[in-house]
Amino acid sequence: MNLFLYSLNYAPEKTGIGKYNGEMCEAISDIYGYSVTALVAPPYYPNWEVEHSYSSFLYKSENINEVKVIRSPLYVPSKVTTFKRLLHLSTFSVSSSIALLIKFIKNKPDVIFLVQPTLFCAPATLLFSKLFGVKTILHIQDFEVDAMFGLGMVSEGKITKIVRRTESWLMKKFDVVSSISYSMLENAERKGVDKSKLLFFPNWADTSFVTPDTDGSALRKEWGFAETDKVVLYAGNIGQKQGLEIVIEAAKSFEGDKNVKFVFVGAGAYVDILKRLAKVSNLDNVYFKPLQDWEDVPAMLSMADVHLVVQKKGAADAVLPSKLTNILSAGGHALVTAEESTELGKIEQANSGIYTRVEPENTKDFIAGLKAVFATDTSKPNMIARNYALKNLDINNIIERFVSDIDKLVKGKDND
Question: Which of 181, 306, 307, 374 has its CB surrounded by the most CB atoms within 10 Å?
Answer without folding.
Answer: 307
